[in-house]
Amino acid sequence: MFKRDPVFITKICLIIICGTFIFSFASSVFSPRAQAQASSTQRSGIIPGSEGLPRVSLGNFFEKIIETTGIYAFIKGSGEGGVPRQEVTPLGQPITIFGWQELLMVIVGFGLVYLGAVKKFEPLLLIPIGFGTIFVNIPLAGMGDAPHGFLHIIYEGGIGNEFFPLLIFMGVGAMTDFGPLIANPKTALLGAAAQFGVFGTLFFASLANFLPGVSFTMREACAASIIGGADGPTTIYIASKLAPHLMATVAVAAYSYMALVPVIQPPIMRALTTKEERLIKMKQLRHVSQKEKMFFPIVVFALSLLLIPTAAPLVGALMLGNFMRECKVADRLSDTTQNALMNIVSLLLSLGVGSQMTPEKFLNPSSLIIVVMGLIAFSLATATGVIMAKIMNVFLKEKINPLIGSAGVSAVPMAARVSNKVGLDEDPGNFLLMHAMGPNVAGVIGTAIAAGVMIAVYAG
């Protein structure tokens, strides 16, 4: 019967366990040592284990609670003792950070989340960037503090070096079809023309040095002007090589302009084109064979490492991803690169970029000028791409719709989608997406080459 009744066995085990627990508890409570400790505690009024902590009255308790609220920090400041913090700008200038400035950056973060979630302006970028901005500006949370802050670990692990940018380029290559560029290679000129925005901004950077309190070296100017390519990974890459102290400002500016491509580009495109030009229809692209698609990344990579080796890491990562896509024997690698890996790295990179949006890095004249220079560079890149298409039409029998010239910036595929949308607004039957992908992917390669040239000239 004892073996056949599991319920009886269970009851016996429970009785033994409970008895053991009661015996242990009674021994600890009624032992002479425990009674001595209890007597000492009653005399001193101190809870055992808290002997080294300061005594806190009820009034001090509530005062401490109030001083650790976000409201108090935003009003008084989040420094030690509830005072404004003393920080240093990216250019090494001391600055005092008041609580309202941190609150302003939190509001900016919520604004970015609103643009991404409600207005649908590149939500995959703006939502994590917005939350990263909010996280890093939460008073007393320390999410961006070294060495163990969540956002600090992300930034140092992949953004403060070339790790995330190269992974992103690999993912972009795996997601991109170079067929439109191969089918219509003259559109590569539009991607090259967009680089005038990058190099033209170097001129404006030198002019900015005449402003009071502004002093940019050529390395810093290169890091700011590359923003014109609207290519976040390339911007991070070149900043890590030439101006690491400006990494935060230029990275946030680049990703902000990437996300705002649908807002910034259309007015420039319409201002530089006539209605007749926007209505130009381009003939269907020829079929590109798989051999051509496999041959293209190998040739481009070989040329880059022979002619501009400083650009070879970016170009090589891009071509590696594309070759895995086109060779058709590494589908698992291609699928992982363009989906799981790309999504994870994009999320971490966007959070890390948002973590750099702190008052000392943005609310100062030099940083604001960099943001303005980035906007100038991006606008010039858009304009020169459109103008180049108009110039090409003077010599071409088969006209190019100038709208695809704006896709010469390397925001893939956002810029191409914008070109297509503006064209559809003029003529719902005029689909320009595949035509715009030619200059768009050429812009990616062109910006990487421009970065390589800058590094080759100024990194020594």
Low-confidence stretches: none
Shape annotation: globular
Major sheet: arrangement of strands: 1-2
Question: What is the β-strand count?
Answer: 2
Number of helices: 23
Content of β-strand: under 5%
Radius of gyration computed on alpha carbons? 30 Å
Mean pLDDT: 86
What summary fits the major beta sheet? 2 strands, antiparallel
Order of helices and strands: HHHHEEHHHHHHHHHHHHHHHHHHH
Describe the structure concisely.
The chain is mainly alpha-helical. It has 23 helices and two strands.
Q: In words, what does this structure look like?
A:
The protein has 460 residues and is mainly alpha-helical. Helix content is 68%, strand content 2%. A two-stranded antiparallel ribbon has the order 1-2. Helix 4 crosses helix 5 (99-117) and helix 22 packs antiparallel against helix 23. The longest helix has 31 residues, at 365-395. It is globular. The termini are far apart.
List key phrases describing it.
globular; mainly alpha; 460 residues
Topology record:
Blueprint: H1 6-30, H2 32-44, H3 58-67, H4 70-76, E1 85-88, E2 94-97, H5 99-117, H6 123-136, H7 150-159, H8 163-175, H9 179-183, H10 188-193, H11 195-208, H12 218-225, H13 232-242, H14 247-259, H15 261-272, H16 275-278, H17 290-307, H18 312-326, H19 331-354, H20 359-362, H21 365-395, H22 414-426, H23 433-458
Antiparallel strand pairs: 1-2
Helix pairs in contact: 4-5, 5-6, 6-19, 7-19, 8-13, 8-18, 8-19, 11-12, 11-21, 12-13, 13-14, 13-23, 14-21, 15-21, 15-22, 17-18, 18-19, 18-23, 22-23
